[in-house]
Fold this protein.
Amino acid sequence: MRNLCIFIYKIDLLFILMSLTTSRLIGIGIIGHRFHISWDGLALTVFGFIIVQLLAVFILSLKMSKKEPVNLLNEQKEKVQKILSSTWGWVSLLLGAVFLCTAYILAILYLRNLGVRMFALILFVGISGTFMLFCGLGSLIGRWIRRKSSSSTGLFTFTGRQLQENVLHQWSSLAISSLLILLAMLCFAYGISTSLARGGSSARTVDFTFEGSKKEIVSVLESSKLKPYVEGYYPMKLSNFEACCGEMSENTTSHTFSWGGLKKSISREKNSKEKENLLRNLYTPYLISLSSYNTLLKFTNKSPIVLGDSEVAMYSNEEFSYSHDLLRKALECNSTISIDKKQYILKSTLYTSNLVADRAITISYGLIVPDDMYNRLIGDSKESLLWNMILDSDFVREKGLMQAMQQVDELLSTSDLKYESYLASMGRQLFYIVAGSYITLYLGVMFLIIGNTVLGLKFLMQQRSTRHRYVTLSMLGASVKSLCSSARIQIWWYFGLVISIALISSIFGIWSMLGSFLRIPRTSNLNINTITLMVVITLIVFIVFELCYIWMIQRKSDEEIKKLKEVE
C-alpha cells in the first residue's frame, strides 16, 4: 500500500515536471512569457510528498500493531474471497457476457441522447457485467485445464491451476483493473480527438474587429503609430433582416421572407437529430454584403464569390458544424428561398469563414447577397458598426503572429475604441485543447498506471502466499528455470485476460463516446491518414507500456522464485 501510494505520487510529480517543461518550451515566443519558479508551490509539493509517505507508514503501522508478534514472524496466507460453485460460476459468466453486450448496444444506440437515466443505466449494466464476467471466468479456465491436462506435459496443470486460483480469489481486483484500463483508453481517445478537433476548428480570417463609427475607427488606424502595422481594413456590412423589417417607416414597403424551398430539400433527407435541430433553428436570417465577404476572402487568399441573377449564397458559422453536412446536401439540390415573394436560388457552396476576429457576432445561418440587394433591403444609409483589420504580413513574419498582435494590442489599448482580436480566440482554443486533451491524457495515464499496479501487486502477493508450492515442486525435481517459465506464462494470461476485456469494451465505448460527444469539423485540415497515424501511435505506445509493465512483473517474479534456492 505504501509503495503504491508513493509510486502514484512520484508519477504525479513527474507529470507536473513534464507540464512545466512543456510550458517552458511552448512559452518561448509566446506573449509576455517569463520563466518563473514558484518556491511556495515547490515547497508545498515536497511537503505533500512527505505527508503521503507518513500517511502510508501510519496506515501500515496501525494494521501491524493489531497483530501478535508470532503472526508477524510466520508467513500468513492472505485472505481469500468466497469461491462460487462451478454451476454458479457458469451462470455468472453468461450473465456477465449478456450484461456487457446489453451495455454495448445501449451505449451505441442511446448515449447520444445524453439522458441522465440512460447514462446511469449503461454504467450500472456495464460495471455489473464486468464484475460478473470475472467472477465466472474461473469456471471457464477450469474446464479448459481439464480438457488440456490429459495431453499436456511439464508444469501445464500447475500453471493453469495457479492461474485459475488467482482469478477465483482476485476476480474483484481483476474487474476493477479492467475498468481502470477501460477508463484509460476512453481518456486517451477523448483527449486525442479533442486536440485534433480543436486544433483545426478556428481558422484565422481577421486579426482585429472594431465596433463604432467609421470616423473614429479610420482616424485611429490611419494614425502614424498604427499605419505601418496595418495591411488593410474594411467594413463588415451585415444586419438582421427581421430587425430592419420592424424598423421600416410608413413610406417604406415591408418585406417578406421564407426558407420554404430549402426546408423542403432538408425534409427529404434521412430523419436525424441534426435534421430536427436544423429545421427548428432556421429563422429569419442575417444578410451579409457580398463585397464585404469577398474582401474577407481576398485577405485570406481565397477565391471570391460570384453570384448570378436571382442567386444568393448560404453562410453558417463553424461553431454550428453539426448541421453542415446535411446543409451541404440540401444546397446541392438547387434549393431556393423567397424574399418579397421572389424566388432566389441558393449557391451550392456553403461558406463558413468567421466574419470577425473573435465573437463580436456569431451568425448561425445567414445569406450573402449582392450589394444592391443588401442596400435595398437594409438601406444604404445605414452605417456599418463592424470594421475588420488585417496586420501587415511582413510585420507578422518578422515578429510572429502572437507577438505582432500583442504589440498592436498595446497601441490600441491607449485609444477609446471598442475592439476584439484573434488573440482571444487563440487563447480560448489553447485553453480548450489543454483542458480537453492534456488533462484527459494525464488522467488516462494515471488510470493505466493504477490499474496495472493493482494487477502486478495482487499477482506478486498471491505468488508469495503460495510460495510453498514452488518449494514443493523444486524438491520434486522441478528446475528454477521451469518454475520461472510457469510464472511468466501465468503473468501473460493474468494481464492478458484483463487487458483483452478492457480493449473489447473500449472499442464500443470509444465508438459511442465519439459519436455522442465529439465531431471533428469539416473545416479542419485533418485527413484520414492523420487520424489513422494518431490511432496507430497510441496503440503502439499502449502496447509498449503494457509489455514493459509485464516484463517488470515477470522480472520481480523470477527474483522471488530464485530465492527458493536460498531457502533450501
Summary: Confidence is low (pLDDT under 50) at residues 22-30, 245-249. The chain has three domains: 1-74, 75-201+427-567, 208-423.
